[in-house]
Amino acid sequence: MNSGLCLRVLILVALTVPIRAAQPAPVTFTLTVPDGPTSTLSGSSVSLLCEVSPLFNAEPLEVRWYRSSNFHSPALLYKDHKIQEAPVDPQYRGRVSLTGGLERGNVSLRLERVTQEDRGEYICQVTSDQWYEKASVFLTVNVTGSEPVLSVAEGRGGGGQVNVTCSSVGWSPQPKLTWRNKDGTEIRNGQEVLNTSDPQGLVSVSSWLLYAPSYSNWLSCTVSLSEEAKREGRILPHIYTAPTAVPGVSKEAFIVTLVLLVLFLVIGALCSVILCKRRGSMWSSSQKSRNRSETKNLIEGAENTVPKPTEQMVTGKEVNLAGKVIG
Ligand SMILES: *[C@@H]1O[C@H](CO)[C@@H](O)[C@H](O)[C@H]1NC(C)=O
Ligand SMILES: *[C@@H]1O[C@H](CO)[C@@H](O)[C@H](O)[C@H]1NC(C)=O
Ligand SMILES: *[C@@H]1O[C@H](CO)[C@@H](O)[C@H](O)[C@H]1NC(C)=O
Ligand SMILES: CC(=O)N[C@H]1CO[C@H](CO)[C@@H](O)[C@@H]1O
């Protein structure tokens, strides 16, 4: 019985202490907000922290959360002990709440289903009958980009090294790109990062690396903003060459050439067989004709060696020459 009573007293004390701490609003107060920007991942929820100082019960006060230029249509307006339906920015309807506990002086804004458009400055303004205070909180929205795409090309400048490229698009803010070998060791040399911003403010990142070709030791490329926002790609750093491919010639062209080549070979073989048969018969006939012409030459030669008496008188030298040629 005694221990039960003790527990009840303890619970009562635990309940009364925070209530006692929640003092009525002092005449003046300040607001406590984070020093740096608050970051969150696109699609998730975030709390924009804001507290009254000293801590007191903020329930009777007015709390207004608004974007810098949008005082009259705030993201959230708490007034007369309740969250007001209007006037509020429709962009935030159903996505905002005050979940920190106003009675404890926590006026933080809870924002759900964060989008890139939510990025920017938010002002937390708390107003009492005698006093008001405001402070700003900057929200950055991280966007995780695409899976890295890796490719291998021949490295320019020789040395037998391959040029490995890694690229990824759609990040915010600019991510960190890291190359690692199979053992997980970071590779720093021969690396160059290029980034371009697209109209939506998202960043593309790409890097290339000269590396000794390998068929077994993969290379990894990691693009990341944080542990939760990280993407990795892997590749074996070698150039893929199809066994039948000829550089600069398409597969179709290669097949057509191959078919034509085979066709030529077949036709060639057929032709040579036919020609061989023909040549065989032609050889025997030419032999006969050659024999015939030879006998004719002999007869003609004999005629020439016996010059006519008149020719000998006029051109004796010629006769001699002609005689030499024939001889
Ligand atoms: C957002 O990105 C920054 C790096 O640019 C990182 O420091 C921070 O932790 C990220 N926040 C979240 C919620 O991922
Ligand atoms: C205030 O409330 C937010 C939730 O909206 C919470 O994350 C934060 O820790 C609270 N601050 C304190 C000091 O309790
Ligand atoms: C490697 O490839 C990138 C393009 O992906 C190119 O800009 C770079 O000049 C190449 N480097 C060498 C040495 O081949
Ligand atoms: C090479 C290049 O374009 N670098 C830029 C990458 O993006 C940052 C800001 O996001 C710029 O400061 C760099 O100049």
Automatic annotation (TrEMBL):
GO terms assigned for molecular function: signaling receptor binding
PROSITE patterns reported for this sequence: IG_LIKE
Domain Ig-like: 26-144, 148-237
Keywords: Disulfide bond, Glycoprotein, Immunoglobulin domain, Membrane, Signal, Transmembrane, Transmembrane helix
Residues that span the membrane, as ranges: 253-276
Compartments in which it is found: Membrane
Pfam families linked: C2-set_3, V-set
Region described as Disordered: 286-306
Entry's Gene Ontology cellular component terms: external side of plasma membrane
Biological process terms in GO annotation: regulation of cytokine production; regulation of leukocyte cell-cell adhesion; regulation of T cell activation; T cell receptor signaling pathway
Residue ranges that the Swiss-Prot or TrEMBL entry lists as coiled coil: none
SUPFAM superfamilies tied to this protein: Immunoglobulin
Signal peptide (UniProt feature, chain positions): 1-21
Protein name, per record: Ig-like domain-containing protein
